[in-house]
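Action item from last week, closing it out:
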Amino acid sequence: MNQEFDFQKIFGQFDIKGEFLSCTRYGEGHINDTFKLTVLNEGKEEHYILQRINNRLFREVDKLMHNIELVTDFCRKSVVARGGDPKRECLTLIRTKKGKSYYCDGKNYFRIYVFIEDATTYQIVRNPQDFYESAVAFGSFANLLADFDASQLYEILPNFHNTKVRYENFLKAVKNDVRGRNAKVNKEIDWVISHKDLCGKIVDKIESGEIPLRVTHNDTKLNNVMLDSKTGKALAVIDLDTVMPGSLCYDFGDSIRFGCNPAAEDEPDLSKVNFRFDLYETYLRGYLSAVGAGITPEERENLPMGAVLMTYECGMRFLTDYLEGDTYFRTHREGQNLDRAHTQFKLVDDMLSVFDKMVEATKN
């Protein structure tokens, strides 16, 4: 696939000193095409990340890159202000020679970041320390952007975490029953409806101003955190394609949803699915240690609700997609979305059973 791009020509569009040496496919991402660019500058090799942006998914590249440009520039200034190393503690976007944040060859869209040296990402949590460090990374990300005006950002995916809208979409799917699956999942439909009061818990507080509008990452998994290859310590958050206005509770909650369940997201055997409160405490400790003054008392108080809400929302989306014929989430077998919904509903039940403990932990 590399042969379809003229990497040397693409490289020549960007404001990078040195001579083009090579460009090879890199990483395990599935959305954009990612390559490691090697340049010879004053006798030394320097590395960059070059990406072809998936403009089929992200159709408004100008808005996408507007968000990334603003966020990376602000993070860089914040890192410098606190005496950190911006080449390792945040993404550095390279402009084109015309000063743009990306280059389009007429068909494809490309961007380049500085390569973060001596760092790695992991697809799975190997141990609690990895989970802790991912919390530190996302807490630090929130802290760096604490004074950023999130209203400057576009909603790349409108209503992405508007749980009230997600619930309305669910009800439409139930009403339309396009695949005739309602009868098979009456129990699951009733479960979602019985928990509908969760939907406005964060959205309403954002609308009222009780919870401030913040920059949210919206994909807070371990594989979007760079860890130092030698120390294992958190360095930077990557993959900013979904940065949008939202609530810190969303990002925190999605990390908990994903990281505190030892089973696979589509595990059919629900006896293997459970909410690990010890991992919740681990993540909470790391997150609060890094976010510091970048979080308000109201946000901190609602972190546990963020975990419940994101899990409820995700399960509802899986069930909605199942009812609509599995058209959004990729499936590899019959009933996979339904299994995914079941795991999320089980986690919500587990969280609610210890919710008072979750709340108490945030106070310590």
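Closing note: The two ends are 52 Å apart (CA to CA).
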